[in-house]
Amino acid sequence: MSILAEKFRLYLPLTKPLQTGLLLATGLAGYMSARCPVFNIGTLLGAAGSLLLAIAGSTVLNMWWDRDIDAKMGRTKQRATSSKLVNENEVLRLGLILSVFGVGWAIAIDAFYGLIVFAGLFFDVVVYSIWLKRRTAWSIVWGGVSGAMPILAGRTLGLGYVDWIGLTLALGILFWIPTHTLTFSMKFAKDYAAACVPTFPSSYGLGVTRVTIAISSILAAVSMLIASIGIGMDWGFLRLLGVLSAGLLMLAVAITFKPSERVNFGLFKYASVYMLAAMILVVIEAI
Amino acid sequence: MKISPLDRVLLLITGILAAYQVAVGIDGFDTVPIIAYTIAFGVLLVAGLLLIILGFDVLDSPVVVIVSTIIPLSLSLGLVWQHTSFGTSYLIFTIIGFAAVTLTRSIHTPGKIPTIVLAFVHGIAGMTIFLLPIITSMQEKAHPFFSLVGIGGALIGVGGLLLSFLKTGRPILSRETILKVLPSLLLLMTICFVAGFKYG
Known about the structure:
The structure holds two protein chains of two kinds.
Chain A: H1 2-11, H2 17-33, H3 41-65, H4 67-70, H5 88-109, H6 111-132, H7 139-159, H8 164-187, H9 189-194, H10 200-231, H11 235-257, H12 261-286
Helix pairs in contact in A: 2-3, 2-7, 2-12, 3-5, 3-6, 5-6, 6-7, 7-8, 8-10, 8-12, 10-11, 11-12
Chain B: H1 5-25, H2 31-54, H3 63-83, H4 87-106, H5 113-138, H6 147-167, H7 175-199
């Protein structure tokens, strides 16, 4: 029993529970936004379970693939994969099992939904991590595309087809991800340089990175607002989303014109709070 | 001073109440009060989130003086527009007052002009938020509970005074004491506003 508990303690962080939880929240919000009806418990649990497994699986596979560069970065060298606390073949097997079960479950629920879940996993593991992450700073675009798949998958499951609202919600996530990841790559620029991972700050400088963050924040906020109007969100909730979007834009402007470590950190954290709040609003509206 | 978990919880509840007020609590009002209250409670919400994320050090930013002027100005504008006949005049005062505070804090202004401008604008807005709901309630033009908004106004006045004197280097209470009571003060103030608007 204690061996199992120890394994769980070592392996759980490999799924990045907070990030996985946030992406799962976007997927469920996407599903509920379709009002299909919302409380079809079987489908809702199926969507939650399949997305959870697929997202966690792709994250574990990324950890497995990146274990060598993680070992070179101060921020990640403590990870179980890079500090060899876990067997790397075991990590690979776990990632594959979670991914296969997640995608398989998704296909069993609905083939089209399953295809989008698979696309998210493919873009994340193969295109982003294996192919592009060590080659170009632009890999984050594909990381963003994969991050946008859960919300698109959720809405598509609810509707049975892809609509412009689903694509706009996905765009909102796609543009939000650079706000999150670029602030991160600025904070840990030395780590990424030590691991020879190209990032926007190392490839184009801090100025361009800050402007990119500001532009992507504006586009994320605009996309979320347009999608929310499309969903038919209540005027009061739209006001609230507008307020939260204004906070995001204010920090994006601050990081462009008055950059500092504090503002950088503030934007990084606020961006997560913003997206979580936006998803909660979509869910409350649907209920 | 480091922000404690309890402070974070108090600020989170403050933020949730402010979010409720923006989303639900002002439905049915006229356009100008809706915009004014959305700005006031929106600033409160975002400020609460930034305090949770960045801690009390965020209060050291010079922008805080300007941002903290927005809350009383927009709240008082909403109240004046709803309950008096000189809404347009007060809207002009609000715009000029905010511009004056922003200008005197952004460019070099000699002597005590920035402090005088700040005290004047805050004073008018603060007294409006404090007195108008109480007078309206006493005249039975609103439910007695509406006077809770006035109590909220008094609390925001106390908070504003404590922070302003702290910023000028002549604190009424020590920085530690002010920061210790600030989350509770913000929460109590928000509860008064939300309850006052809901039941008033």
